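Problem 12. The chain below contains 105 residues. Write out its predicted structure in token notation.
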Amino acid sequence: MAADPAPRHIRAILEEITGMLVQVAGDELLVVGEITPATTFNDDLALESIEFVALAELLQQRYGTTVDLLGYLAEKDLDQILAMTVGELATHIARVTAADQAHAG
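Solution.
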């Protein structure tokens, strides 16, 4: 078994995102297979816009207003949004929460 190249905190965020995705899209999401950092929201998960909104709400409940998924998506063009991966979102969350903690500390 190959070692997971993602740092521990990114893996923890990935696990939280996976749980949130199951919460908003249902258990059938797991039929797709394991959700990995390379899993795309569009091609692999076929997430609908209402599910993105629900995910954004769960992320803000968990991480606070620092994690603004809809604002993050607004900075991207359509091709970038369609190609976005779960790992990319996890990395973004790690970056903005670390920056927020650095400003608070």
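Discussion. The radius of gyration is 14 Å. Students who got a different answer should revisit the alignment rule from Section 12.3.
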